[in-house]
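Structure (tokenized):
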């Protein structure tokens, strides 16, 4: 499960970089989250119209089937 989470996060981080977000680092074993801190602040408000949210959704759509997870994508 951990390997799948890391592979998923790596895929999304790579997709963000390919989409012009060059400061998104690769996640690692100790921090498996996709780090968007270079583009967001603590006050940042998630909204469906936000380009970062749209990019995330597009990156999830591109994930290989084996990395999709109904629990996360619901």
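Design, position by position:
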């Amino acid at each position: 499960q951990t390997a799948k989470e890391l592979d998923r996060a790596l895929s999304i981080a790579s997709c963000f970089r390919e989409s012009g977000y060059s400061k998104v680092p690769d996640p690692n074993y100790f921090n498996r989250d996709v780090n968007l801190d270079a583009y967001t602040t603590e006050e940042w408000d998630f909204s469906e119209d936000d380009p970062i949210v749209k990019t995330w959704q597009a990156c999830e759509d591109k994930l290989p089937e084996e990395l999709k997870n109904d629990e996360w994508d619901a």
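Reviewer-requested clarification: The mean pLDDT is 89. The two ends are 18 Å apart (CA to CA).
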